[in-house]
Amino acid sequence: MRRVVIGTAAVSMALSVAACGKAGDDKKSDSSSSSSSGGKTIGLLLPDSVTARYEKFDHPYFEAQVKKLCADCTVDYANAAGDAAKQAQQVSTMVTKGVKVIVISAQDSAAIKSSIDAAVAKGVKVVAYDRLAQGKVSAYVSFDNVKVGELQGQALLDALGSKATPKSKIVMINGDDADPNAGQFKQGAHKALDGKVDIAYEQSGLWKDTVAAQKVKAAITQLGAKNIAGVYSANDGMAGGIANSLKGAGISGIPLTGQDAELAGIQRIVAGTQSSTVYKAFKPEADAAATIAVDLLQGKSIDSLATSTQTSGSGDKVPSQLLTPVSVTKANIKDTVIKDGLYTVSDICTGEFAKACKAAGLQ
Question: Distance (Å, rounded) from C-alpha 132 to C-alpha 140?
Answer without folding.
Answer: 6
